[in-house]
Amino acid sequence: MIKFSTHSGIHTLQVKQKLPVSIEKAWEFFSAPNNLAKITPEHMGFKITSDIENDKMFPGQIITYQVHPFKGFTTNWVTEITHVVDHKYFVDEQRFGPYSMWHHEHWFKAVGGGVEMIDRISYKIPFGFLGRILEKILIRKQLKNIFEYRYKKLNAFFGSFEEKNDHKKKDLTFSAG
Asked: H or E stretch including 69?
């Protein structure tokens, strides 16, 4: 589920996805910064440019990237991991980059049959009136496409929550009958 809202000039994107894996396995994947490139569309040319010495993120970690969000446009992006609570959530915030503000919360919750993940991104576009137009006609679409791609990639890596849990329900129904 992808949902957009706007409040006081700040845009919020919220994405929910369930995966048929343990919270430990989900956390292991998402808390490793190098895995971000695996779930980012290839055409964006996403590349981490800082040395990631530790496989796991930590509060205060600075990560630099280069990304091509649109054809003919390359930008550098610097984020800081500001909060980490193991197996529950982490937050990354843009320090320098294309947005006036970028605050990305990653939430994880164990549910029957797997884990529910919620991404909540609060962001603000620069350039005033022009930025508001760009957000409506270009940036919102780009973010939606990125998270749709991510949804498909995660299902390819870990399997579909619905398919795996429907199969378990059928097995239970069959064995109970």
From this structure: strand 62-70
Write out the chain's pLDDT in tens, 177 residues. Answer: 899 999 999 999 999 999 999 999 999 999 999 999 999 999 999 999 998 877 899 999 999 999 998 888 899 999 999 999 999 999 999 999 999 999 999 999 999 999 999 999 999 999 999 999 999 999 999 999 999 999 999 999 999 988 777 655 444 333 334
Taking CA atoms, 81 is separated from 2, 20, 64, 126, 154, in Å, by 23, 26, 11, 22, 22
- CA 162 from centroid of its chain's CA atoms: 20
Q: Write the single-letter amino acid at 145.
A: N
Q: Going edge to edge, which strands form the sheet with 73-85?
A: 2-7, 10-19, 114-124, 101-111, 89-96, 73-85, 62-70, 47-48
- Model-wide pTM > 0.85: yes
CB-based contact 64:49 (threshold 8 Å):
yes
User: Which value, in Å, is the radius of gyration of the alpha carbons in the chain?
Assistant: 18
Asked whether the beta carbons of 5 and 11 are under 8 A apart, the reply is: yes
Say how far apart CA 61 and CA 84 lie, in whole Å: 11
- For domain 2-176, the CATH architecture is 2-Layer Sandwich (3.30)
Q: Which structure tokens are listed for 162?
A: 């619905």
Q: Which of 132, 145, 140, 65 is nearest to 100 (CA)?
A: 132
